[in-house]
Amino acid sequence: MKQISPNELHQLIQSDSGNLFLLDVREKWEFDIARLEQSINIPMSQIPSALNELDEEQTIICICHHGIRSMHVCNYLMQAGFDNVINLTGGIDKWSSDVDPNVSKY
Description:
This protein has helices at residues 6-15, 28-33, 47-50, 68-79, 91-98; strands at 2-4, 20-24, 40-41, 59-63, 85-88. By secondary structure, it is an alpha/beta fold. Helix 2 links the parallel strand 2 (20-24) and strand 3. It is globular and about 35 Å long. Pfam families: Rhodanese.
């Protein structure tokens, strides 16, 4: 499974041509507390029923609180035939520490 650090993701977002899909798999209440501006929230439990909403051509970056749930979603998506999925190591918590301290910690 591919992994990306918060700093690497930040650089990728800055240089991306629009092919990134930031998939936040946390619960809505978590997403409401802290999120990356460009991210879309589909909680982990809803991923199986939301597969048709995902574009296999995009690079899907999976995000959660610390990187564990998102890792499981990456594995699930790869088993479902998605090739270009990447896990954000350390999750939104590490993003807040390393990239944007304005993103709330919880």
